[in-house]
Amino acid sequence: MPRHTEIKKLLQSPPVGEQVTVQGWVRAFRARRFIALNDGSTIKNLQIVTDFEQMDEEVLKKISFHACIRVTGQLIESQGAGQSVEVIAEKVEILGEANPEEYALQPKKQTMEFLREKAHLRMRTNTFSAVFRIRHAIAFAIHEYFNKEGYYYLHSPIITGSDAEGAGEMFQVTTLDLDNVPKDEDGAVDYKEDFFGKQTNLTVSGQLQGEIAALALGKVYTFGPTFRAENSNTSRHLAEFWMIEPEVAFYDIIDNMDLAEDFLKYLINYVLDNYMDDLEVLDKRIAELEKNMKAELRRPMGLIDTLRFVVDNDFERITYSEAINILRSSKPFKKGRFEFEPEWGKDLQAEHERFLVEKKFKKPVIVRDYPKGFKAFYMRMNDDNETVAAMDILFPGIGEVVGGSQREERLDVLKQRMHEMDVHEDELWWYLELRKFGGCPHAGFGLGFERMVLFITGMENIRDVIPFPRTPGRAEF
Ligand code: 4AD
Ligand code: MG
Questions:
Q1: CB within 8 A of 22, min separation 6: which ones?
Q2: Which of 226, 353, 423, 447 maximizes ligand 1 atoms within 8 Å of its Cβ, making it the mutation to test the pocket?
Q3: CA nearest neighbour of 298 among 129, 109, 458
Q4: Can you tell me the distance from the alpha carbon of 44 to that of 463, in angstroms, rounded to the nearest whole number?
Q5: Is 317 helix (H, G, I), strand (E, B) or coil?
Q6: Coil, helix or strand at residue 391
Q7: Which terminus of the chain faces fewer neighbouring Cβ atoms within 10 Å, N or C?
Q8: What is the rounded average pLDDT of the residues 6-29?
Q9: Is the pLDDT of residue 337 over 90?
Q10: Of ligand 1's atoms, which has the minimum distance to the CA of residue 228?
Q11: Which of 115, 117, 98, 120 has the alpha carbon at shortest distance from 27?
Q12: What pTM, to 2 d.p., does this model score?
């Protein structure tokens, strides 16, 4: 078998005049002569020119949309417009046929919902191949950023015995026989009989373990799968998603915000610098989609312009109390257009976040110092005794991408908060001990990986930026 060349490499420095072998999937076949071949290495197709009069009719018949082929021939400067080089096929081999009758994915526009049902084929489309190349790019840039800044990558556990967020929306892990559950004298499930001898769940956050590591290695981050059994069927929630959680010793809430802003801009810049081909395709997709939309429904800027705008401007920074004041004196509030009243002490709703980001400031906003009532027990109490040193970063079109805080390092205050919020001390004894053996101020945050991919690719639904989405009622593939 001749050595084959990847299309991306071939187009980067084309060996014009030489014999090449390429392999890939047929994206189009025109006039029994021109094949658009794609091998996934780049969004760009390679044009193959066949001489149908010389070709075996059996082979020719099998060159159809999505068939997998291997082609050997000379690479020449292209005669036609639209591409710089093309291959004059001397030999075409069929590696895998695509049965046209059975084939559901015709080369026409398909809805996102339809494509989701065909996860094994949707990656072959221009849009999804671009999305998943960019998803890779962001993951790579995350490791690159933290490595360059002296952070250590921590693998936090996936099976845990604690509920870090106190939200209780967890998937249970058990080997107990559900048809015959062992019970104790009080009639409660006897978890002593379970695999770990206690009740366990899939993790909702690696933060608490991250704190152990930060107070030893200084600067760490986790990047792993995260599970939440929230029954929310929205375009922003997944039951299985990926989260990045840096945790840093000696950082306060301001350092934390600075880190988050610098980090997010780095990721966007990395994609702008290295994946422009894919971004252009996604940018065009949105323009196409919005062509016939009313002006007020269209995005204010194209995708690439939005990304440039975000990296070129400072994020707006406000307190929660300021946010409430802004919302209460806003036009939509006065005209009764909010579904939920913005009220001090209540969490911001998506409509409030969207107003702040898209109407008021027209750029990313960091909201800090939230009321203690609806935030997690581990967030550091501010001097007012009413608010905690929390911060959320809100992005245009997405809402919350980052949630973080300075952590409560004072043992007595932490115990008090756990008591108030009904978090059991015996489950988190080690978290409390951390404060007894050289505790220090520290802070961190969690970035929802898919929400960031959603923002950078300009897609509309979080299910379309993860290869195999898991949502309520759905765990196919
Ligand atoms: O705000 P959250 O719940 O924060 C934490 O879990 C903290 N322990 C983080 C920390 O301080 N180390 O979640 C962090 C981010 C959210 O801002 C959001 O982007 C994402 O995780 N997220 C989800 N993404 C997709 N689907 C879901 N169901 C998500 N829930 C949270
Ligand atoms: Mg949050």
A1: 4, 5, 7, 10, 37, 39, 46, 48, 70, 71, 87
A2: 226
A3: 458
A4: 25
A5: strand
A6: strand
A7: N
A8: 96
A9: yes
A10: 28
A11: 98
A12: 0.96
Contacts of 48 (CB under 8 A, 6+ apart): 22, 34, 35, 36, 37, 71, 73, 86, 87, 89, 92
The per-residue pLDDT for range 314-326, each reduced to its tens digit, is 999 999 999 999 9
Q: What is the DSSP string of 159-174?
A: EESS-TTS-----EE-
Q: Residue 101 has what pLDDT?
A: 66
Q: With cut-offs at 50, 70 and 90, classify the pLDDT of residue 81.
A: confident
Which amino acids bring their CB within 6 angstroms of ligand 1? 164-165, 205, 207, 228, 230, 237-238, 241, 243, 245, 400-405, 444-446, 448, 450-451
In the three-class reduction of DSSP (H, G, I as helix; E, B as strand; rest coil), residue 415 is classed as helix
Q: Which CA distances in Å does 344 have to 37, 347, 372, 380, 387?
A: 58, 8, 11, 19, 11
| pLDDT for position 2 | 59
Task: Please tell me the distance from the alpha carbon of residue 22 to that of residue 331, in angstroms, as a whole number.
Answer: 60
Q: Say which amino acid occupies 77.
A: E
If one counts every other C-beta atom within 10 angstroms of the C-beta of residue 171, the result is: 13
Closest ligand 1 atom to residue 238 Cα is 26
Q: Residue 118: pLDDT above 90?
A: no
- Range list of β-strands (E), 189-323: 200-202, 219-227, 240-249, 316-319
Residue 344's pLDDT is: 98
Q: What percent of the chain has pLDDT over 70?
A: 97
Residues in the chain: 477
Q: Whose CA is nearest to atom 21 of ligand 1?
A: 448
